[in-house]
Amino acid sequence: MAKNLKNLFPGLAYVHGDTVVHRMHPLPKLLLLITYSVSVIVFSRVIVAVALFLVLLLFYGFSGLGPGFFLRKLRVIMIFGLMMLLVQIISVQQGQLLFEYTLFNSISLQIWSAGLAAGLIMMLRFINIIVSSYLFVSTTDPNKLVYALMQAGLPYRYGFMLITSLRFIPVFSQDLAIIRNAQMAKGIDLEGVSPGKVIVSVKYLLTPLVICALNKVDCLAISMESRAFGLHPGRSYLYEQAVDLKEWLFLAVSTVLLLGGGFYLTYIT
Amino acid sequence: MGKPVVCVNGVTFRYEGCALPAISDINLQLDKGEFISITGSSGCGKSTLALCLAGFIPHHVAGEMCGSVIINGLDSQQYPPSKLAGIVGLVQQDPEAQMCTLRVIDEVAFGPENLCLSRKEIKDRVEWALEAVNSLHLRDREIYSLSGGEKQRIAIASVLAMQPSLIILDEPTANLDPVGTVEVLQVIKKLEADTAVIIIEHRLKQLMPISDRLLIMDKGRIICDGKPDQVYREFRCGQKRFYAAGFKPGEREGPSQPAAGEKELCLKPSPVLSVSDLSVNLGEKSVLENISFDIFPGQITAVMGGNGSGKTTLLLSLLGINKPERGEIFYRGSSISQEKVSLRARNMGMVFQNPNHQIFENTVLLEAMLPSLMLFKDKALASDMVNSLLEEFELLQYKERLPFSLSFGEKKRLTLVSVLGYQPGILLLDEPLIGQDNLRAEIFWQAVLKHSSAGGISIIVCHDPDFVRNFCDRLLFLDKGTLLLDRPVEEGFNLLKELGFKEYLPGGSIVEE
Fold first, then answer.
1. In this model, does residue A66 exceed pLDDT 80?
2. Where are the beta strands (DSSP E) in B320-466?
3. pLDDT computed for residue A11 by the predictor
4. What percentage of chain B has pLDDT greater than the value 70?
5. Among all residues of chain A, which has the CA nearest to that of B111?
């Protein structure tokens, strides 16, 4: 399951870097992502979608992730987007006929203006949303993000829920690998892939995994509580994650540009 | 000397659903700066006592407690663990599970941050604590990238940063390789003089030189308390087998034992297992390179090496779980390199480090029979064999119980029973000593010796040099995926000494005062 998700969203993880996009404080960056996503959803003209895509490319340029990132990690997303475009073009036949081609004198391929527009919008919206989230995740240290959110008012219990789950994902996946080995050593055939084996593996892997997880959680709870977790309603932080005035300004200007620009292109031109 | 840090008065605790108390009538007093070691067989109540001292009993563990635990003048009945935090610090066995943040510095700052200290105070404490465990250079590292020893040092630092009056360390080196063990023991030894330290350990030898007092627990009671050497002597008189002298080499029966040595090789018995030029990659990384060795009937072979040197990978490759890049594996002369794991497992029984990874059936009996049934499908045969093994391993009384309800050591014995049940020619044991007191370990070893005197071979990944010296014929030492040496044990240790791996020698992890 996890592997399938990984294939769909390959490398969706923080990529260390020291660019302007990486250095931006996680909080205004998150707000910017939200504003951007709102613009993507609210404005439904092709030109706006294209403009937003260009803005995204600009940020990708700044982030130093390089064109390889698009080709390798976002390939599936791009292909999926193109398929959405094709489905719309084939199924919506309204507006003006832009292009027609007859195949073997019988099958006629037509592209209509409304179909093309709807397809482009749908494809770009999809790509813009996913790709901007990818950019955010790839350039934001999750640890910093959660610490920033906690300092901005997120109750620390929720914050640490996120941090401990990030901490334990690799631990559990390692455990799962060992459990799989251990069950195979007992003679349970888990090699190869077939639906039967998937069911067998769930049966043999899940119980030990849950037991191991519970043991670890017990140990973690003792370790956290013996270090005064939950003693006070608030807590202090070693690193203050204050947002620069410049960054607030940048956020404000970007918000005005995104929403204002979108409004202008949608309703005035 | 002033007020004692810890004052335990007549504490008895019984877990909910248990007939007998886990600890009974414990009286203990600990002064500022005192360093005491507690030892005893598995299930003797050491860890329960630790939980009492840290306040988790009675607040978070269901059961019935009498008596009082006073820490720095505070009664644990009235103060929950989070309120005792800053007074008592607890370091647990598993270095992985007790870390709750992603970076070293966040981990060490975690406690002081919870105490709402000022930024400057937190910073000072973090630096001081990291310095105290020789780990200032690790401060910006990510936790997952640390070795076991480093993780345990950071766990100690994160407790130190709370500046507790009492630190309890519950088997802090159990999961570490010899290098990590030495690192951690050196850190423990130089803990601040005004902090009282309680360390719970099976491996006494390492602690004797650094303890002020040694306590021995048995069946929930403290049965000896005094100067380490005195207690050691007194206790050894009573129960010779208890530790150190527990293993008796040279008790093997049967003629099939070709004591490993170069001379015997001219007799040329044919090897049971041959590995030739084995290389294994995991992902992009090369984990084993050009490993070759032959193992002859009856041999007990130890595999030593640091964490990450490829020991476990070697066992998994023999079993076919890790696929080799190159090389061949032969069992009794025929190549098994192409065989599936389920076929190879008929001849090779592997016991993993953590039994929780292996166990999953509903009763002890079913669990013990599972591999026999999976591999040979002969229920009657499996049942007879397994029942007698359960008896031998003192597990028969639990046969209808849920395996997960057993103690760690019992689970470990259960996993060995499940493997011995189908009498494989090769036993692969990964760190079998962890979680076993010496008394129980002996049952374990007698079984291995019996297996070898019947001509079987055992390959044992082990960190304990004393054990290797007493029990094994041969030593394979892996270093960064290559086979650094393959010698009879004594010769192997001499060579290791010359090569500078002194932590791996018998007595090498003892930190002198």
1. no
2. 324-331, 334-335, 348-351, 426-430, 457-461
3. 66
4. 91
5. A227
CB contact A240 to B (< 8 Å): yes
Does one domain contain both B180 and B310?
A: no
- Residue B142 DSSP label: B
Residue window 16-75, chain A: list those with CB within 8 Å of chain B. none
User: Within this chain, do residues B83 and B204 fall inside the same structural domain, yes or no?
Assistant: yes
Which residue range(s) make up the domain with B21? 6-238
% of chain B exceeding 90 in pLDDT: 41
A171, exposed or middle or buried, with CB in 10 Å at 0-12, 13-18, 19+? middle
> Is residue B420 classed as helix, strand or coil in its secondary structure?
helix
Query: Is B62 an 8 Å CB contact of chain A?
Result: no
| B363 DSSP assignment | S
For residue B253, the model assigns a pLDDT of 41
Is the CA virtual torsion A63, A67, A69, A70 positive or negative? positive
Of B193, B222, B238, the domain-final residue: B238
ipTM of the complex: 0.84
Chain B contact set for A227 (CB, 8 A): 85, 89, 110-111, 114, 158-159, 162
- Of the three residues B238, B254, B275, the one that is the final residue of a domain is B238
Question: How far is the alpha carbon of A108 from chain B, nearest alpha carbon, in Å?
Answer: 50
Q: Looking at the domain assignment, is residue B361 inside a domain?
A: yes
Q: What is the DSSP string of B207-273?
A: TGGG-SEEEEEETTEEEEEE-HHHHHHHHHHH-TTSSSTT--TT---SS-----STTGGGG-PPPSE
A226–B89 C-beta distance less than 8 A: yes
Q: Is residue B281 part of a domain?
A: no
B491 and B392 in one domain?
yes
Collapsing DSSP states into helix, strand and coil, what is residue B433? coil
* In a shared domain, residues B16 and B164: yes
If asked whether residues B369 and B484 sit together in one domain, one would say yes
Residue B228 and residue B346 in one domain? no
pLDDT in tens, A92-123: 888 888 888 887 877 778 888 888 888 999 99
Q: Which residues of B touch A171 (CB under 8 A)?
A: 96-97
Identify whether residues B309 and B231 lie together within a single domain: no
Q: What is the CATH number of the domain that holds B48?
A: 3.40.50.300
**Is the pLDDT higher at A16 or at B198?**
B198
φ/ψ of A12, rounded to 5, equals -80, 85
| Whole-number pLDDT of residue B307 | 80
Give the total number of structural domains in chain B. 2
pLDDT tens-digit map of A159-207: 999 999 988 988 898 899 999 999 888 888 777 767 777 787 787 888 8
Q: Is residue B488 part of a domain?
A: yes
Residue B94 lies in a domain: yes
* pLDDT class of B477 with cuts at 50, 70, 90: very high
Show residues of chain A in contact with B52, CB under 8 Å.
none
Residues B202 and B315 both lie in one domain = no
> What is the average pLDDT across B176-196?
81
Cα gap B509→A57, rounded to integer Å: 57
Please check whether residue B342 touches A, CB under 8 A: yes
